[in-house]
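During the second year of the project, the team shifted from modelling isolated chains to modelling whole assemblies. The rationale, set out in the original proposal, was that interfaces cannot be judged from single-chain predictions alone. As a representative example for this report, we include one of the complexes processed in the last quarter. Its constituent sequences, exactly as entered into the pipeline, are reproduced here:
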Amino acid sequence: DAKTTQPTSMDCAEGRAANLPCNHSTISGNEYVYWYRQIHSQGPQYIIHGLKNNETNEMASLIITEDRKSSTLILPHATLRDTAVYYCIVRFTGNQFYFGTGTSLTVIP
Amino acid sequence: DGGITQSPKYLFRKEGQNVTLSCEQNLNHDAMYWYRQDPGQGLRLIYYSQIVNDFQKGDIAEGYSVSREKKESFPLTVTSAQKNPTAFYLCASTSRVRGANVLTFGAGSRLTVL
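Output from the structure prediction step:
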């Protein structure tokens, strides 16, 4: 089963780009990578997903390596409201989704 | 507005009592999920249902039960057999977005067993 590993925590200065890495070395060829974020005591919020190509939307960009074993979520101009726990997740057998412990991002004024 | 409604938001119960957490969605999604989250931890799957009248156990199903009698409803019962039920419970459903199954979450229910 595909699993993900992420750094436990990261800091980012307000206004700078936040780059959050994720390792998913066991991902299979047809599994998507999804990113969510969770602000304390709220439900996780969908950010972006991708399969092979890099993706961009109004919230973030997702860069996936060519071998698909890792990806990076980029928040181009971090604000204080981006302080949250960010989860990189993959789907596996039986339509289940694996959530690790995520990366706690702190945006510093 | 379409979405997932979980109730109650906060629930206090005495040890040994069964409690039922409600999850309702008006998104017309087929698949629904229940996750448990403990402080400082990620989400762990309790049960999921891909269609009405069918559901599967997740990683931590012991001490929990579910039903899926209607497409829009997926209630979770925390039974007295669950050894440590105090946690944050999240309900979700999936929809197809650009070929992928994207989860949408409710706001969560926080259960405290006294």
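The mean pLDDT of chain A is 92. Strands of chain A lie at 9-13, 18-23, 33-38, 45-50, 55-56, 61-64, 70-75, 84-92, 96-98, 103-108.
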